[in-house]
Design goal:
The protein is an alpha+beta fold. It has two helices and two strands, in the order αββα. Strands 1-2 form a two-stranded antiparallel ribbon. Helix 1 runs antiparallel to helix 2. It is elongated, with a radius of gyration of 22 Å. The relative contact order is 0.19.
């Protein structure tokens, strides 16, 4: 029984690291392109932003390139973590089913 737990633990760990790393590297490339576009549109090192408040009024604002990069990095970290957990759970399920099908219970 300990062998099954070890196997599923190892496979889940590999799934977590693999899923998180893959997501991070893919998003890192996208972030570089987004930063290049932001630098092209920036005026005096700031990006114009704006929107609408809940009561319907429009507002204008600015964001520095450093703030924009921090937001991208934060989004990348959160998404990579979530992707890694989903990958780990999926890998654990597949490993468990594979061990179950290979065991003497089903044979």
């Amino acid at each position: 029984m300990a062998g099954i737990g070890k196997c599923m633990g190892i496979m889940s760990g590999i799934g977590l690291v693999g899923g998180a790393a893959t997501s991070y590297f893919m998003q890192n490339k996208t972030n570089k392109v987004a930063m290049e576009k932001a630098k092209a549109h920036a005026q005096n090192g700031k990006i114009k932003i704006g929107g609408m408040t809940p009561d319907g009024k429009l507002w204008d604002g600015e964001m520095t390139l450093d703030e924009f990069k921090k937001n991208l990095n934060k989004k990348t970290a959160i998404t990579s973590g979530i992707s890694g957990v989903i990958s780990a759970v999926t890998t654990a399920i597949v490993a468990g089913l594979t061990l179950l099908l290979g065991s003497k219970i089903i044979k």
